[in-house]
Amino acid sequence: MKLSTLHNMRWLVAAVAASLLAACASMGRPQGGPRDVDPPVFVNSTPAPGEVNVSRSKISILFDENVQVTDPMSKVVISPAQRTTPLVMAAGRRIDVELRDSMKSNTTYTVEFSDAISDLNEGNPIDGFSFAFSTGPHIDTLQISGMVLCAENLEPAQGMLVGAYANLSDTAIMTLPFDRITKTNQLGQFTIRNLAPGSYRVYAVNDNNRDYHWDRSEDVAFLSEVIVPSVSEGVAADTLEAADGSDSIVMRPAAVYAPDDVLLTWFNENYRPQYLVKNERPDRHLIELEMGAHADALPELTVINGPYAGRKLADMAVINGSATLDTLQYWLTDSTLIMQDTIALRATYLRTDSLDQLSPQTDTLQLMVRGLRQRLRREEQERKKQLKEWEERRKRGEEVDTTPKPVFLTVRMNSSSVYDVFQPIGLTFSQPLESLDMNGVHLLVKDNDTTWVEVEPPMFDRDGDLRPMQYVASYEWEPGATYKLEIDSLAAMGVYKQGNAPFSQTFSVRKESDYSTITFNVAGLDSVPAVVELLSSADKPLRRRPVADGKAVFDHVLPNTYYARLFIDSNGNGQYDSGSLTEGVQPEEVYYFPKKLPLKQRWDMVQNWNVYELPLDAQKPLDIKKNKPKPKPGEKNSREDEEDDEYDEYDSSAGGVNRNTGVRRNSGLNNSRLRRNSDRTAY
Known about the structure:
It is a single chain. This protein is mainly β. Among the domains are: 42-266, Sandwich (Immunoglobulin-like); 276-372, Sandwich (Immunoglobulin-like), CATH 2.60.40; 411-500, Sandwich (Immunoglobulin-like), CATH 2.60.40. It is built from five helices and 45 strands. The strands form 13 sheets. The protein has a five-stranded mixed beta sheet, with no helix packed on it. Strands 38, 39, 41, 42 and 43 form a five-stranded antiparallel beta sheet that branches. A hairpin with a 5-residue loop joins strand 24 and strand 25. The protein is globular and about 105 Å long. The termini are far apart. 27% of the residues are buried.
């Protein structure tokens, strides 16, 4: 009996141990229950939201669960701007913020966290959480809301600093820190909170050096008009959800802050200080200069040594330069100057001074041939090697030709095998040309796929005054034809008396059946000059056409998927121009065609396009938008699930439903309707 009892007890202990092991194993994979998708909830804080007469510099905010702070250096923004970076730390359910600047009296402070705060377990962020208090007897509550987009491509500006000045001087943005600041969210939206009554100028800046104002190299957006914020009584809609899953909308009184539709479009002045970056002489024949920025005039270069001291270098050289005059080549043409081992120049040009102004600067340049000694040593070694080889061949009884081999300049065409019917033909030579004998240029077309027939050749001319090595010609190509361009020997003569070797290159022209046409019927411009750009899938311009009589026609377009944008050509130069804050000029307005354009072969596509049909931030197709909001943990980006608006060959209109999700411009003015971002603000 005792043995039986002992045996049973052993089985009982084994069973209990097994059940405990099973329970321990199951703890690693809890089953059931929905995933937590709710962000932390604000409970209370010290000081309290909206508290006045606050003197302590440490803020503690309590939530209903453990929290974390992500990237506080860039996401947490405090107004007024802090010279010393504040400390932001998470401890359990609490967030502590310690201001390390001296507190200003009678000032409303705002701490904005963007999406930096999230729960510790699931990472669900609180979007747009903001906390405010005052060191004085009252708290300021006015707001300015809006959106920041890139002026050139309508990309939402994410994390861009937006600020307001009560100082209405045009120069405040260049010297003073912002009075109140905020940052844009992932949609480019912003709200400058807790403003005092008054008038303000509003700017957006990519504040790379964190000095809370604009430096000329930074991206910037500005409003031309002064803003006076206000508040009025209104109503807001709340959605209530019942236990059975049904919901209803309840209206409640609410404060309406204005303006809430400010549109800022950022640009960069492409400012670079002007100075002489590089000067060198890579070869006896060549002097190269590089400037730090675009220039309006050539530098004045004077030789100050040797037999030509006092003479202008430009009188003894051919200049090859960029259109912006920041990269220059001086091809020396005087043999005496070429043989000088060192050329000393006095260079006078405009340089940016300490006051950021252009002023005349004179430098002395000493230009020696780069690697001259090594080059001479190498040439001497090669000459000795050649002489030795000739001597050995003579000893073997072989005939030796010691005649120097001619050196030819090289010719290169701008396209090797296939040309578009509208494409000009271009030639690039290895040195500036002294002459090009058009009698030595021949164009042949293949007849019946067997014989070549000579036709009238293209008439080449220099591609600009400062492009002596590039020649270009327009020509009416026969679609589908095969051509051969021939240049006789020595028809091209360089400035160093080197001619070309015989040149021949065969190429074909695309057939008309390879192409299609896209026509845009543009509405809403009211005769304002505009240009339409056809874009690649990388959002890069491929072709431009001005809008004439309400139309922009792109013919001879190869089948592919395209996109389009339009810019208001304010100065009529046919090119997109960004703005200038220093001159008070806004960037030219840009609009996107809201659908992609899948173009088929031999297909005439016609699109009706009202540039004001959709809000501005809803115009750019999602396929080519780069700054997309990141999905929250555990969920997909809802916008990516939207059905893409593709071209319908049975309905060529570009109309659509106004989704009221962003900024709209009417008749070219910045009258906009902006959907307010839903945020949680503690006042």
